[in-house]
Structures are given as structure tokens and as C-alpha cells.
Amino acid sequence: MRSNETFSQLRLYLQRVWTIVVLRMVIDLLAVFLIVGVIALLAVALVAVAGASLGINYLHVRQAAAIVGGIYVSVIWIRTMRRHWIIAGRVSDEKPAPTPGTPESPEVAHADPSATSSN
Amino acid sequence: MLTHLLRPQIEADAAQKGTQALAVLRFHRTRNKLLWAVFVASVTLAFVVILISVAVSAGHVPASRWIYVGIAAAAAIAFIGEHFRTNLGFLDKQTRNAWVWAGKLNVRLNSDFLFPHTLAAYAFVVVPALLTCLFLALFSTGWTRPGTKDYTAYADILKQMATFAGTLLVAQIALFNFMFSQLLGKYSSAIAVAVSQHRVVRLLRLYVMILLVGLYIFYLFGFPDALPKTAFLLALSLIGTLAITIWASNTGIRIDLAIRYSGHHSAALIRRLIKPPILSRSKFWNAMADLGLEWRNPERMVVTLPPQKASSAATTAASGLFNAAHKSIQENQHETFWSSLVALSFATEAYVKRRRDYWGSTDQFLGYLNDQLATLAKAAAKAPNEYMVMNTVTTIGAIGALALEVGRGPNLPDVPKREHPESHPYFPHWQTLLGECFELTHGLMRTTAASEVLTQLLKLTKKAIDLGYAEDASMSFPSELKRMYATCLAKRTPYHLSLAGQCITSIMDVWSYSLGRQEAVLAGVSKSMCETVKMMALAFQAVETLPSFDLRDPVTTLTSKLNEEQVTLQDIALLILARPVKDRWQRTLAVKDFQQILDLVIDLLKDATVKDISFAQQYGDVFYEFALLIFTAVPNEWNEPEQRAEKYSHVDRTTAQELFENKLAETIKALIPLHYRSETSVMEWEHKLFSIIGIAAATYAETERESVRLLALEAIECYRDVLFEALEKDERVHNDSWDYLQLTSVWARHLLKDVALADALLDAVANGRPFHVGSTFLGSSKHGWGSYGYPNVGLLQSDFHIPYPRNIGHRFSENAKETVKVWQEKLMKPEELGDTYERIHAIREPIRKEIMERYRKEKEKPRPVVPKSNRSSENKT
Asked: How far apart are CA B84 and CA B90, in angstroms?
């Protein structure tokens, strides 16, 4: 009985780790690689057209892409670790932002009045 | 079976919830777009910074320092970007900003159909032209004169470009002037002129003219030596001009958009002509005035006199748009007609926004609009396309609401806010115009114009309330609506009855809206609405005896909540009860308002019951729900002594609660005989009335309040007397009536503590209830306590319970629900019910046994023997 409970807790924990930590990390990494790739391609096109006059070459583009990729991988890794610590309960979560479109209902002592329609 | 009646309401409710969900989904979608936009922007920026640092470091020694600076900057960008990308508060705020900007852009695109062309002209014509000038200024070192080698080499290109520009100019003049005059001139010359003066048209024409002149000057007198290097920019701007000219010409054939733009153009003109009044002069302008340099328009200095020039300009613009509208009616062009009205709204809005800062309600332009719109409505009502008149009505409502803003004068910060009710001198004019439209359109069958009139009248009145003109809501509005209602009742077709229902809806909407505004409360809107509703409902009950098939008749609209937005009498009562009360006068007004609406319900219920028509059922529901509100929701502040001295001297004045309960008692006593004698049986009337009596008894057990005790006792006695009267007349008293009397015996003994009455009721039931030979209660079709002589209620024949208030139940708080539950338990305590049953059984059992004995003896008596011959003759017969 107790082992079943522990197992379900573990399963829940792993599920949360998968959806909140791993999946988001994968999505962020894919997005970074895609965006950096597209920007690098545009930069290559620019180098091909006017690289000489602008003072940049293919090597510069490759180096810049590698450095930016590295920075973003580091940033994403730090965020992933933070998410993992939040799930593990080692740091407190950020204060959640208010959900848009939540109406505020007035408090009435006995019965609630009907909402008045307006222009 | 009747799902087709409820289905539209269910679908409307579902659609409303869907709209709310859609708004949230759209918000999330925009927020997600912003999230990824921040991400892409930060990555791009970081990449550019790194690329620059790498490129710079390649040219410097030592290189590493620049790379480190670039990496640090890129890392900072990445961290900041990630911070904002995951900050929901920031993203929410930016999403709202994005929506506001998108909305503004949308308005601009809808009002100015050549706005994208203007942007394109700036990008592809003006910017290259300015760059050309800049490059010529920066890179020219000398002037290339005619006859030189460089001139000869470039002269041919100059000649070709000048020819091209000349041809383009001719084409533009032909295209724009001919097309606009031919297409738009027949609607109004003012519209054609407005479009031909559009910024993009003027820009393209002017640019080609300047370019042509410039090229000829260069051709004749030579050119700067850098001109050949910038030729591609000039060529680009010329090609851009050509493309945008073709594009604008293609778009220009949209007459409806051109008319709409004309309204936008007129609005801009009006805004230029009418500036805010100058209420005080600054030191700067004092000094300028001393020097004789105060050149501002003198009209602005006189706040009591509205500017005349703007009014004239607005009238001119409006006349052109009215021409276009009338022409559209003649040609049955719905889209251009609608555009004319939209354009008119643009111009009027611009005028009113500025004009309202000046004093004076009388306005020449608004008066002109009122007259012209009346004419337009008449013309549109005769048009084959009946939607046109509906559009006219919408515009009249919108312009009427705008017109109410005129006359209040400038919004001065040191002037105290007016809290007393007022009326606007021009409200009746616009209301009457809508009334005229109703007269014109209620007979038309393929338009919703008559319904639109009611909607616009509702909006107009709400606007008047918002602006503090609450007397219009209490005086003018009901009288106009009564006229329309009378028209509907005179026709009495299903369509007109639904319009009558909508009249009631409008009244109830305005009523509920006004309850939240102090000016409206002071203006006595509630009293006026009570009288109007009463008159309308009584008039309807005089001519109709059944609700309409689509459930949109006035009585159903007043009493049954079929959708969330509908305002019923019960909702109004709830709003009055929930109104905040601070001062004595506020309490007095609130009590008076509630009393008026209670009287209204009682009068309507009595009328329907006396007339013996089916509406008594609906009013009975309302009465029951009002009673429930009185017992659960009357605020404690309403019952406090009026003067503080009364509290300390223990002066017993009738409290509001007691006042309402006495009213309930009177009504119940009047209703019981009416319902009992009614031929059209109102379903479950006893259930609701006895629920009120039971609640009163339970309340007495809790509070020992005399008014509730009297309510319960008098009602019970009244019911008993009605039954006895029927017995005296040898009328049959139904078993259900004995059931209720038996139940009241329980309440009288245990809750009201009136043992004498309880015993009397018990005796009456024990001796009065008929005996069923061969069966007992236990063997009858009743269930639960019904088997012991107590009432069974509802379709399921369940034990007696306090019915759920269908129309206001969802507004009840948990506390109120809990209170009702406690009452329910008190009313149906098993031991008390069992005790009374035993007492009755003890009286009835000997009588029953005696009857049974007599019956048995009757059966055992030998039958007289009939001779055979007689028997056969009996068989034959």
C-alpha cells in the first residue's frame, strides 16, 4: 500500500519534471537553434552581397553563431535548473501573474444582485 | 417538445460564454506572439552585437578584449531577453498595449482607405528622394555644365527620365481627376474633392511635378557631379511613384471606402476649425497681448458662444454625405449608404468632441442633423432594401447619444460635481425622432429596424443617465415607450407582441441601470418605472390571456429569467436590496422603492388571479420569490430605528421588515379564496403559499417576531375558513386541501406554539377528511409523508419542501441557502409530523372501525331473491 503511494508520487514528480523542465528545455533549445540558423543564413547572404564593403566574412558569421548559440544554451540550462529546483521545492516559485479576463464580483451580504448591462 | 423555444436562449448563453473564452484565447495568442517576438529580437540583437565585436576584433590587436566586450553585451542581452520573455506581468501589459495599437491602426485603415498607399509613398518615394538630395549635398564636388563630356554622357538619361516623369504626371491627372469626378461626383462633389485632396494623391502629384521641373533644370543648366551615382535612387522613386499611382487608382474605385474617407477628412477639417476654448490666459499670452501679438482666434475666448465657422463647415460636410445617402437609396446601393452614415458619424463625433467644451445646448449643426436624419429615415423606409432604414436608426441613436454631450460646458476642476437630477433640452428631440422611426418601421417585415429603435432608445437613455440627465429617464423615456407599446398592443401580431416584450426589456434595463446612479435614484426613476410597468402589464393582461409561443411577451419578460442578461422584477428587487445605504434618506428611498415594486407585483398578481388567466402562475412565482427575498435578504440597516433617540427610548415603530411581512400577510389572505375558487387551476399554488406560511412559522420559532406569527396564523385560519365555507355549501373539499390543513396543524403546535389552534385544525382534519372504504393512506398512491395525510408536491409527488426559487436561486449566497435548509428541516420534522398523525389517527380510528363495521353488516345482509322469469326479462332489457 505504502509502496504504491510512493510510486504514484514518484510518477507525478517525473511527469512534472518531463512537462515543466525537460520539454520546455527542448523547445527552447530547438527555437534557439532555429532562430540562430536563420539569422546566420541571412548574415551569410549579406556577406555574399556586401561582405567586403562591410568588413565581415563567413568566418565571422560562423564564430558569432557559435558564441550566441553557446550563450543561449547556458542561459537555457540555468533556467532549466531553476525550474527543476522549484519543482523539487528547494527555491520558492515566482509570484504568478494575474490571469487575464477574470471578472471581479461584488460581495453582497445575503444575496448577489444581477449584473447590470451597460453600453 | 418545446426545445425550439429554449434552444435559442441556451445557444445565446453558450455563445456569450464562448465570446468570453475567445477573448481569453485571443489574449493568450497575442501574448505568445509577443513572447516569441521578444525571444527572436533578443537572439538577433545578441547575434549582431557578437558579429560586430568579432569583426572589430579581427581588425585590432590584441583582439580578445573586443570579443569579451561583445560576449558580455550579448550575455546581458540574452539574460534581459529571457527575463522579459518569462515575465507574465510584463507580457500581459505589452499585450494590452499591442491590442490598443492594433485597434488604432484598424480604425485608421477603416477610415482612410489610402493610408497604406501613404505609408508606401513615404517609404518608396519620399525616402529615396530625400536620400538623393542628401547624397547630392554630401558627395557633390562641382557642377557639370552643358557641353562638357560628362554632361553629354548623362544628358540622354536625364532626357528619358524627364519624359517619363512628364508622362506620369499626365497619367496621374487623367486617372485621378477623371476617375474621382466620374465615380464620386454623382454622389457628392464634396466627396470627390476630399478624395482628390488626399495626402497620397497630392504627394505623388507634387513629387512628379518637382522631379520634372528639377530634371529639366538639370538638363538645361547642368547638374551636380554626384547625380549619376544617385540615379538609381531617383529611378527607384519614379518606379515607386508609378506603382503607387496604379495601386491608388485601383483602390480608388471603391466608392464606399471613398465616402467613408470623406467623413474622416471632414472630421479632420472640423477638428482644425474648432479648438478648445481659452478659459484663462497664461503669462506668456498676457505679454504677447501687451505687445499686440495675441493672434489666436477670438472665437476661442468666448466660451458662451459656440464657434460658428466650425458649425458651417460641419453642415457643408454633412450635406454632401446626406446627398450620397439619398443617392444610394435611389440606386439601392447598400454599401455606399452605410458608408455615408459611418462618415456622418465620424464628422459628428469630431464636432461634438470639441463643441462640448462650449456652453449652450442649442446647436445649429445638430439641429440640421436631426431634421436631415428624419428625412433620410422616411426615404430609407420606402427603399426596397429594408436594411437601410435599420442602419439609419442605428446612426440616429449614435448621433443622438453624442448630441447629449453638448451643453455641459467645459470640464472645470474646481466646479463641484452635480448630484441633483437634470434633463437635457434636446433629449426629447432625439427620442421623438426614434419614435418616428418606430412608426415608420414597425409595419415592415424584412427588417429589425423597429427592434433597433428600442435598442437605440435604451442606449440613448442610458447615456442620459450617465451624463446626469436622469429626469429624462424618469419622465420622457417612459412616455415615449408607452406610445410604442400601445402601437404594438393595437396590432397584436406575434411580431408586435415580441416588440411589446422588448419594450418591457428596455424599461427593465433602464430601471436596473438607474439603480446604481444616485441622480437617477433622486429623480424617482424607480417610481416612474413601477407605474409604467404596471400600466403596460395590465394593458397586456386586458387583451391577452396566454403567454406568446416564443416566450417573448411582456409578462414572461417581466417574470421569467430565460437568459443571464434578462432583467426581471426579481432582479430589480435584488438590486434595491443590495444598494448601499449610508444616510437616513437613502434608507427611506430604498424602503420606498422596494415597497413600490412589491405593490406592483401584488397588484399584477391579484389582477391576473381575479381575471382567472394563466399569468397568475407566473406572478405567483414572482410573489413567492419576493417573499423569500423579504425573509432572507432585507438588510439590517433598513430595520434600525429612524432616530437615534428612538433606539434609546425604545420607541417601537414598524420596521421595514414588519411592513413587508404585513403586506405579505394581507396578500396571502386575499389570494387564498381567489385561488381556491379559481376555475383555471394555477399549478401548485398551495405549495408556494404554504411555503411562505411555513417560512413565516419557522422564522417565528427563531425570532419570535410578532409580524411573522400573525402572517402564519392569519393565513392558516383564512385557509381553514375557506374549507369550512366550502363544506357548508356541500362542496367537495379535495384531499390535498386536508393534507395542507394537517401540515399547518403541525406548524401551529410546534412552531407557532398555538396549541388551541393546532387542536382545532387537528379536529377539523380528523372529522372533515372523508374516509375511503377499503383503502387507507398507506394503500393510496401517495409517497413518504403523503401516506400519513401530508401533502405530496411536484411532478415526482415528493414530500412537502420549500421550492427552489428558479429565477433568483443562482444569486443566493451560501448563507441564504443554508438558512432555507434549516427552515426546511424545521417544517418537516419527522417526530412532529408523526405526533400529529398519531393524534388524528386516535380520533379517526374508532370512527373508521364503526364505519367498517356498518359496511360489513351492509354486505352481510341477505339480498332479496329475484324470480327467474324476472331475471331473464332484466337480462333482455
From this structure: 7
Q: Which residues of chain B have a pLDDT value below 70? A: 1-5, 59-64, 415-419, 642-652, 680-682, 772-780, 862-877
* B798 phi/psi in degrees, rounded to 5: -90, 175
How far, in Å, CA of A112 to CA of B810, rounded?
8
Q: How far apart are CA B225 and CA B485, in angstroms?
A: 84
Of B39, B571, B808, the CB nearest to A31: B39
Interatomic CA distance for residues B469 and B782, integer angstroms:
60
Residue B348, classed as helix, strand or coil, is: helix
E strand residue ranges, B94-239: 143-144, 223-224
- In whole angstroms, give the CA distance from residue B199 to residue B262: 13
Residues of A in contact with B24 (CB under 8 A): 100-101
Residues in chain B with CB shorter than 8 Å from the CB of A31 are 36, 39
A55 → chain B, closest CA residue: B55
Task: Render the burial of B290-316: b for 16+ CB within 10 Å, e for the rest.
Answer: eeeeeeeeebbeebeebbeebbebbbe
| Grid cell locating A27 | 523547445
**A4-13, A70-79, B443-452 — which is least confidently predicted?**
A4-13
Q: Which three cell numbers stand for residue B609?
A: 388571479
**Shortest Cα distance, chain B CAs vs residue A57, angstroms:** 8
| Residues in chain B, overall count | 877
C-alpha cell at B365: 449643426
Question: d(Cα B460, Cα B454) in Å, to the nearest integer?
Answer: 10
**Helices B706-728, B735-750: crossing angle, 10 deg rounding:** 150
Closest alpha carbon to B706 in B753, B746, B741, B768: B753
Long-range contacts from B76-82, C-beta under 8 angstroms, 24+ separation: B77/B42, B77/B45, B77/B46, B77/B49, B78/A71, B78/A72, B78/A75, B78/B42, B78/B43, B78/B46, B79/A75, B80/B42, B81/B38, B81/B39, B81/B41, B81/B42, B81/B43, B81/B45, B81/B46, B82/A75, B82/A79, B82/B42
Could you identify the residue written with the cell 409604467?
B532
Identify the pLDDT of residue A104: 38
Angle between helices B199-221 and B231-252 (to 10 degrees): 150
In this complex, the residue of B43, B74, B808 whose CB is nearest that of residue A39 is B43
Instruction: Indicate the helix (H) or strand (E) that contains B798.
Output: strand B798-799
Question: What pLDDT score was predicted for residue B874?
Answer: 44
Calculate how close chain B gets to A72, using CA atoms only, in Å: 7
What's the pLDDT at B231? 82
Compute and round to an integer the Cα radius of gyration of chain A.
25
A11-53 pLDDT, tens digit per residue, is 888 888 888 888 989 999 999 999 999 999 999 998 888 777 7
**B320, B394, B699 from B340: Cα distances, Å:** 9, 13, 65
Rounded Cα gap, residues B408 and B425, in angstroms? 11
| pLDDT tens string A50-70 | 777 778 889 999 999 999 999
pLDDT for the residue B87: 87
Integer Cα distance of B720 and B744 in angstroms: 10
Mutate to test the interface with A, among B17, B51, B80 (most CBs of A within 10 A): B51
Cβ contacts of B250 within 8 Å, gap of 6 or more: none
Reduced to 3 states, what is the DSSP secondary structure of residue B214?
A: helix
- Nearest-by-Cβ selection for B813 from A31, A39, A111: A111
Helix (H) or strand (E) holding B792, with range, is: strand B792-793
Please tell me which of the candidates A35, A61, A67 has its beta carbon nearest to residue B74. Answer: A67
Between chains, do A111 and B43 touch, taking CB under 8 Å as contact?
Answer: no
Task: Give the minimum alpha-carbon distance from A52 to chain B in angstroms, rounded to a whole number.
Answer: 12
With a CB cutoff of 8 Å and minimum separation 6, the contacts of B251 are: B113, B114, B117, B257
